[in-house]
Amino acid sequence: MTTKIRTEFYFEAAHKLNLTYDSPCQRLHGHSYKCAVTVTADCLDENGMIFDFKILKEIIKVRIEDKLDHRYLNDIFDCNSTAEYMSKWICDEINDELQNRKSNARCIKVELNETAKNMAIWEEEC
Prior knowledge:
elongated; single chain; 126 residues; alpha+beta
């Protein structure tokens, strides 16, 4: 059995995509992103937690929100800032910070909505 924790956050950003076909996404546009992050660990720590929610939210603020919120994503990424790409990037950023903190926790899933109806899901292989 696996225990998981999940938290959500939001950010606003603009971008345009460079595509091999004609699409309105090639024009400058913005999104109100909603993101859910799922974290797990093989066992609970000495405090009975996978990871402290407060610290996880601080990591998200510094590693994700401060870099992406109210930004032009084409200035940040050297590739198309698709929801698929960004969901993987968010997972990698969180896992990098968890490793830096020598935590046993790891991000295993990121669900990134760029609209109310469109979501990309990145799931780490176990």
